[in-house]
Amino acid sequence: MLADAERGYTREDFDPNAEIPKAIAKIKQFLTSWAESQGLPG
Fold first, then answer.
1. Predicted structure pTM score
2. pLDDT in tens, the chain (42 residues)
3. Does some domain include residue 9?
4. Shortest CA distance to 28 belongs to which of 42, 40, 18, 38?
5. Residue 31 forms part of a structural domain
6. Residue ranges in the chain assigned as alpha helix (H)
């Protein structure tokens, strides 16, 4: 997972304040779409 992320930017460019919310949003989007595919409310 880290290797995939590091392809997009160098370590010097990494800004946790910017990247962490983006990662959380992606995870929430994934969980929501997974829940919908399972037929769960979400």
1. 0.50
2. 566 556 665 566 667 788 888 999 999 999 999 989 988 765
3. no
4. 42
5. yes
6. 2-8, 16-37
